[in-house]
Write a structure and sequence with these properties.
Blueprint (H helix, E strand, L loop, with lengths): L7 H6 L2 H12 L16 E4 L10 E4 L6 E2 L14 H13 L6 H8 L3 H14 L11 E9 L9 E2 L1 H8 L14 E2 L5 E8 L4 E6 L4 H11 L6 E5 L12 E5 L13 H17 L8 H13 L5 H10 L7 H6 L1
Helix pairs in contact: 2-3, 3-10, 4-5, 8-9
The structure holds zinc ion (ZN).
Length: 329
């Protein structure tokens, strides 16, 4: 384990072998583990003449099962032709930006196709998904907001899902829908959120801000029996916390009453919306959960440095690779 944090400048200077060595240190602090058979015997080191996926030439061969592997097996980097050095630079960009980085920005900055940039951005967002199942506690503010739909001036929004599928070659180019063309239909999506004051936020797309929708989600994410819950007057939260304390701020007559307010979750909504509108223009309902991941991650990791966020994210890049199917749910 390195004792000194890496800097952005350092990461930008890395070649693909150095990037692979970094991923390896983050993933296997006690040396390589064969992803096929789990062997921890020190593998053979092999240098290929031609570059393999991710543009690296150094690989391992397991002494037990004889299979070749690198530290990218089973990670978001697996099977990608994008150089590993570009992946790590893009991860650093995403963790250090306040509002996020769009696939278009990555495409221009790293001279990769838009399709590759999109693929990379989606996978990085997948790595950013929340892995903590601890319930929020203390004083918790819950609220719902509306995301998407038409712009303030009533302009139609780009239908990004169809757009992505065309770009990724998953859908033939529709004669009636050309690149960058705006799609007339997109409804606003309801997002439910809860934030622990001084702590973490959880957000999720819901069908409506109603009791039956909100209750199971809040009880899964919030220690309702013990928290001091703050909400607005929406009927969705009526009698939600049967044992804990629940205070309601009636926004029709007041903004706050002493410490009874929902200003933290409202502040979070404004960060989310500024980010989505400013950086991504508009996000379709199907893609929204991934963007919620990204903003949640950034907020929940706000107390650590960019370098620590970078290292932590590289350490959690392994996971189930049916990520794309998951993101379609
Ligand atoms: Zn093996």
């Amino acid at each position: 384990m390195e004792t000194k944090s890496v800097t952005y400048k350092e990461v930008l200077s890395w070649n693909d072998e150095q990037a692979l060595a970094f991923i390896e240190r983050r993933r296997w602090s006690n040396g390589p583990i064969c992803p096929k058979c789990g062997s921890v015997r020190e593998p053979y080191s092999i240098t290929r003449k031609s570059k393999t996926k991710n543009k690296v030439t150094s690989i391992y061969r397991c002494k037990d099962c004889k299979k070749d592997f690198t530290a990218t097996v089973g990670t978001i980097f697996e099977g990608s032709h994008i150089p590993l050095s570009t992946w790590l630079a893009a991860i650093f960009d995403i963790v250090q930006s306040k509002k996020g980085i769009s696939a278009h920005q990555l495409h221009r900055k790293y001279d990769i196709t838009y399709k590759s940039a999109l693929f990379m951005a989606h996978r990085i967002r997948f790595a950013m998904r929340n892995k903590s199942f601890d319930k929020l506690t203390g004083t918790v503010e819950a609220d719902a907001t509306y995301v998407g739909g038409k712009t303030r001036r009533g302009h139609k929004v780009v239908h990004e899902r169809i757009q992505d599928e065309i770009e990724m070659g998953l859908r033939p180019k529709h004669p009636g829908l050309k690149r960058g063309q705006r799609h007339p239909r997109m409804d606003k999506v309801v997002v439910l959120g809860a934030v622990e004051r001084g702590g973490s936020v959880r957000t999720q797309v819901v069908k409506a801000e109603s009791g039956p929708e909100v209750r199971p989600i809040l009880s899964k994410n919030v220690d309702l029996a013990n928290v001091h819950l703050m909400t607005d007057g929406s009927s969705a939260y009526h009698r939600i916390s049967e044992y804990g304390q629940h205070d309601v701020v009636n926004h029709e007559v007041e903004y706050a009453r002493g410490n009874v307010h929902t200003q933290n979750i409202e502040g979070y909504w404004s960060i989310l919306k500024r980010g989505i509108i400013g950086t991504f223009h508009h996000v379709s309902e199907h893609r929204l959960p991934m963007y919620l991941n990204e903003f949640e991650y950034r907020f929940n990791q706000r107390k650590i440095t960019d370098a620590d966020r970078f290292e932590a994210l590289v350490s959690q890049t392994h996971g189930r690779l049916d990520w794309y199917r998951q993101s379609q749910d």
